[in-house]
Design brief:
Mean pLDDT: 92
CATH topology of the largest domain: TIM Barrel
Order of helices and strands: HEHHHHHHHEHEHHEHHEEHEHEHEHHHH
Number of helices: 20
């Protein structure tokens, strides 16, 4: 029997019933990923398995480095086939890592290959996938739909073109919306920051001479994102995040220094970041958006690898615990102004789980369920034990029934296997709790919980679509039907 069989990760009858009868058939809402919207709009055809499966996945790059693979065969000038062979050499040595599970799921669900990839069968796997990649259903948008994805949000810079999202939606019957990745708005120390501001001025037709001009330009672009159906913004709070609001006059002075080409010291940079984060939080609240905060990634590690691969090369680590006091002051400043947006708090450091889960009950709004959310197990934590740990913490310290479910946080169309993986772990966790007597063996109650965590909560919370669609006015784009899930080779 194949390693990935029908009841993979499902250890009891309740788990099996919940997965096969409820979770498996639900459509997917993926509210945070890094898929290229241009690839979806073009319905891009991939040249080979490396281009589809490896080049876009820093998770795999990281394990290949740990395994001693030379960088030339990871992100360098080696041929795509040599890079694939390097991964075939590495994969059998990843036992215990979630990539071993995900890779097996991806090969079987998409290509019908039930054998686990090894150096011995690598040539056969390469050739079998190469033949299938020539077919229409293996193009980018078609692959996403085959996973059962109904709606997805990509991560987009404030200056990115938003036309590909609309094109992908209209052409491929797949709801593709932007979400604003706002880190460049606060990237004062970047050597490209002043050029970025110049481009912002060009796109908005505004002259940016001071902080007020800058805020006006940002608001104009936020409006454009909103009209394109954006429902979420996203900011990274690195381990050294500290919140300290300056006066308006101080913030204006700091920004003037930047426009003049001067550098801010650490304290000034912290204060200007705090001021603009506060401004952005209020702007997102006015639009009814959800603010995602990704907390705790140690992005400053290997200077060598950063120069080779850029900012997302799989070399970041887990930083120290979050400054909860600063985070609370940030949220409290918005709440006191009556402009606290709904939030999703992700953490890369699992020691923060309990603290962040408890915060979901510290900031609330009458009539708004789950206003502050502990986001899904993220990055290094989305493995079997990590997902279980996250579910247990959320149940113990917060309200599991309001959880928004899984995201891929990925760049590859094959990584949507993580939704199936999450759903299997979720159903097995609930089944185990029933078996141990912690939950009632109530089919209706458990089925509703699974349906909410896998689909309904995200669908109701996100309210995707542009203003016209959300308000139900005429001319709204018709939502696509849930696309067909992968049904072949499902065992």
């Amino acid at each position: 029997m194949s390693f990935i069989h029908t009841d993979f990760l499902l250890s009891n009858s309740t788990a099996r019933a919940l997965f096969h009868d409820v979770a498996h058939s639900l459509p997917i809402i993926d509210y945070h990923n890094h898929i290229d919207p241009v690839a979806l709009a073009e319905n891009r055809q991939y040249e080979n398995l490396t281009q589809l499966w490896l080049s876009l996945d820093p998770y795999k790059h990281r394990l290949m480095r740990i395994n001693g693979v030379p960088e030339d065969r990871i992100t360098g000038e080696a041929s795509d086939y040599d890079k694939f062979m390097a991964w075939a050499h590495t994969l059998p040595r990843t036992l215990g890592n979630p990539l071993y599970h995900w890779s097996a799921l991806e090969l079987q669900r998409v290509f019908g290959i039930k054998e686990t990839l090894t150096e011995e069968n690598a040539q056969m796997v390469w050739q079998a996938c190469q033949e299938q990649l020539q077919q229409e259903e293996f193009r980018a948008a078609n692959l996403i739909k085959r996973w059962g994805v109904e709606t997805m949000s990509t991560s987009d810079d404030l200056l990115d073109d938003l036309q590909p999202h609309q094109q992908a939606t209209l052409t491929h019957s797949l709801n593709v919306y932007p979400s604003l990745r706002g880190d460049t708005i606060l990237a004062f120390s970047s050597q490209h920051y002043r050029a970025w501001i110049k481009e912002l001025a060009t796109q908005t037709g505004l002259t940016i001479r001071n902080l007020e001009d800058y805020q006006t330009a940002i608001q104009q672009k936020i409006h454009d994102f909103d009209q394109a159906g954006c429902r979420l913004a996203d900011h990274a709070l690195d381990p050294d995040f500290y919140f300290a609001l300056p006066s308006e006059a101080q913030a204006m002075n700091y920004f003037h220094q930047i426009i003049a080409g001067n550098k801010l010291n650490q304290q000034e940079s912290v204060q200007l970041t705090s001021y603009l984060l506060n401004f952005l939080g209020k702007a997102y609240a006015e639009q009814g958006w959800i603010l995602q905060l990704h907390i705790g990634a140690q992005r400053q590690t290997s200077t060598r690898l950063k120069k080779i691969t850029g900012g997302a090369g799989g070399f970041a680590g887990i930083g120290h615990a979050c400054d909860i006091d600063s985070l609370c002051r940030f949220l409290d400043s918005l709440e006191q102004a009556g402009q606290l947006p709904r939030m999703i708090l992700y953490t890369l450091n699992p020691s923060d789980y309990e603290a962040l889960a408890s915060l979901t009950g510290s900031f609330a709004e009458d009539g708004v369920a789950g206003k502050i959310q502990l986001g899904p197990a993220w990055w290094y934590n989305d493995h079997y034990e990590g997902i279980q740990h996250h579910l247990k913490v959320l149940a113990n310290y917060g309200m599991l029934s309001r959880f928004l479910g899984m995201t891929t946080d990925s760049r590859s169309p094959l990584s949507f296997s993580r939704h199936e993986y999450f759903r299997r772990v979720l159903c097995n966790t609930l089944g185990t709790w029933v078996k141990e007597g912690h939950l009632p063996n109530d089919t209706k109650l458990l089925s509703e919980l699974v349906q909410n965590l896998c689909y309904e909560n995200a669908q109701q919370h996100m309210k995707y679509g542009n203003k016209t669609e959300r308000e139900g006015k005429s001319g709204a784009r018709v939502d696509c039907n849930p696309p067909e899930r992968i049904t072949n080779n499902s065992n």
